[in-house]
Amino acid sequence: MTPGRRTANALLGALIGLWAASGAAHERSASYSSWKFDGQGAAVTLIVAQQDAESLGSGAGGADSLLAYATSRLRLSADGQPCAVADVPRRQQAPAGRLRIVWRLACPAAQSLHIESELFDDPAAGHLHFATVDDVAAPVQRDLSGTERKWPLSRQGVAAAGAPSSGRDFVALGFEHILTGYDHLVFLFALLLCGGSFGSLVRVVTGFTVGHSITLALAVLNLVRPQVAAVEALIGLSIALVAVENVWLLQPSQRHLPVSTWTGLSTLGLMALFGLGKIAALCWGGLLLFLVCQHRLMQGRSEPAAARWGVALLFGLIHGFGFASVLVESELPASRLVQALIGFNVGVELGQIALLALAWPALRWALERRRAATVHWGSAFCLSLGVFWLVSRNYA
To answer: First and final CA of the chain: distance in angstroms?
Structure first.
């Protein structure tokens, strides 16, 4: 294939990727509520993304509209009768990019209670809501999304039989999270595009697993809490960098690719020094140093792709903080963190294995027949998605 033809293919792949990115710009968002019951009602805490709140209307980051919206869409019923709002909803301090609303509900004497969520219930948005109840035994959590929007409770707010409270439920939560984490899936696809031997593929996936397992644990155990917006932007950057590396590994003679990447990172780092973007300048510098060292290391190998586990490990550290948001923002008590961490991580891994098992045979078939075209088209698609997510998340 001529260079001009390859360029045309890459441009077309980029256009397709940007079109897909525009549709995936609003990924599945999530909100979290916690419920503390006493004999007369419940105290409710709701955490939502500021972007979701802003979609409701005007106000300070959408908070004014959210106050009324939250109490009308997140409800508690006693024997079928709605519980009344006893305290005026108010804002509390929340992590960057999030809003926290608290209020109290008063319920009449009843035999059974139901929590129901209709938050952001547009079917196209695919919003997830995770409710946590402080049970008398141990807090339990349920996903009130899709068709499962009601949660039956006993008279004192104790979770009814069958409510999720075991590690198995966190496994299911992790499995669902990876299936709807489109940026994580694109990153895995980009890693697989260069193919390689089965052993090298195992090392790459293992590097990614080790990386995100470390930071998932650090975040959930509250040892490290990075800025959410910066993490999301870095996930987009990781996709773009792996896509560029795919093309360089296919054609190592194109030395302008790594040099252009280093120049781009240096420029973005300088912009960060002047306060542009959510990613710190020190982070840009660290990424630049790592990629320069990684490139030099891979140059001295007969099979450069075999050393990609290092890139997968580094970016796995970033993706782990992204995975952790579901557990961190649900504010589980310390007694449940280890069980939740292990179960959720197992669910994520099972989801990855299932997707890899489905995708790898078809991708290998394409690589064996038209390797260059597959790598160029696939990498252009991933690059456009990664750049779109980086720009929209870092500079919005």
So the answer is: 39
Task: Return the structure tokens found at 217.
Answer: 């644990």
**Residue 227: other Cβ atoms inside 10 A:** 16
* Bridge partner residues of 41 (DSSP): 38, 106
CA distance to 16, 254, 291, 318, per residue, from 380 (Å): 9, 16, 20, 22
Q: Return the SS3 of 26.
A: coil
CA distance 325 to 26: 16
pLDDT band at 133 (very low <50, low <70, confident <90, very high): confident
pLDDT at 342 exceeding the cut of 90: no
pTM (two decimals) = 0.72
**Residue 263 to residues 117, 123, 138, 139, 268, Cα–Cα distance (Å):** 48, 42, 52, 50, 9
Which residues lie closer than 8 Å to 223 by C-beta, 6 or more apart?
none
State the amino acid at position 352 in one-letter form: Q
Helix (H, G, I), strand (E, B) or coil at 376: helix
CB-facing half-sphere around the CA of 352: CA atoms within 13 A: 25
| CA dihedral of 288, 292, 294, 299, whole degrees rounded to 10 | 160
Beta strands 128-133 and 81-82 are unpaired
**Which residue matches tokens 């750049």?**
387
The answer, yes or no, to whether residue 157 has pLDDT greater than 60, is no
From residue 95, how far is each of 98, 100, 104, 276, 329 by CA, in Å? 6, 9, 22, 20, 9
Tokens encoding 55: 């979609």
Tell how strand 128-133 and strand 30-38 pair up: parallel
pLDDT for 21 = 43
Q: What are phi and psi of 76, to 5 degrees?
A: -125, 130
**Interatomic CA distance for residues 169 and 335, integer angstroms:** 16
Q: How far is CA 14 from the centre of its chain?
A: 23
pLDDT value at 159 more than 80: no
Q: From CA 80, how far away is CA 52, in angstroms rounded? A: 29
Which residues, in sequence order, are CB contacts of 291 under 8 Å at separation 6+? 241, 258, 261, 262, 265
- Report whether 35 contacts 134 (CB < 8 A): yes
Tell me the two tokens of residue 307: 């050393």
Least confident span in 19-23, 39-43, 168-172, 175-179: 19-23
* Model confidence at 12: pLDDT above 60: no
C-alpha 8/C-alpha 373 separation (Å) is 11
Place of tokens 């930071």: 215
